[in-house]
Amino acid sequence: MTLSATSPENGTASEEIEVRYNAAPIEIGFNSRYLLDITEQIVGEWVVFAMADAASPTIVRERAETSALYVLMPMRV
Fold first, then answer.
1. Binning pLDDT at 50, 70 and 90, where does residue 37 land?
2. Per residue in 36-60, is it b (16+ CB within 10 Å) or e — as a string?
3. pLDDT of amino acid 40
4. Cα torsion at 59, 76, 4, 36 (round to 10°)?
5. DSSP strand E in the chain: where?
6. Do 59 and 73 touch, CB atoms closer than 8 A?
7. Is 34 helix (H, G, I), strand (E, B) or coil?
8. What's the pTM value of the predicted model, to 2 decimals?
9. What mean pLDDT comes out for the span 25-54?
10. What does the mean pLDDT of the chain come to?
11. CA distances (Å), 72 to each of 8, 9, 62, in order?
12. What are phi and psi of 34, to 5 degrees?
């Protein structure tokens, strides 16, 4: 997966991470602050992002800890 961020104040950044994904390619945008807020709550090593398409909410949860569930709304890219 390629993560990229663009900010008028800070410029752009891009990072590639290894993921397990077995569906068609998708381009989806999120508010980086909301994504960071969620990931700061997760302490485990594995995270599950369940997404249907670029316009639908994404469910984020820690793979080992099923009691917490986060909903992340996409932005238009």
1. very high
2. eebeeebeeeeeebebeeeeeebeb
3. 92
4. -40
5. 2-7, 11-16, 47-50, 58-62, 70-72
6. no
7. helix
8. 0.79
9. 90
10. 90
11. 23, 24, 14
12. -65, -40
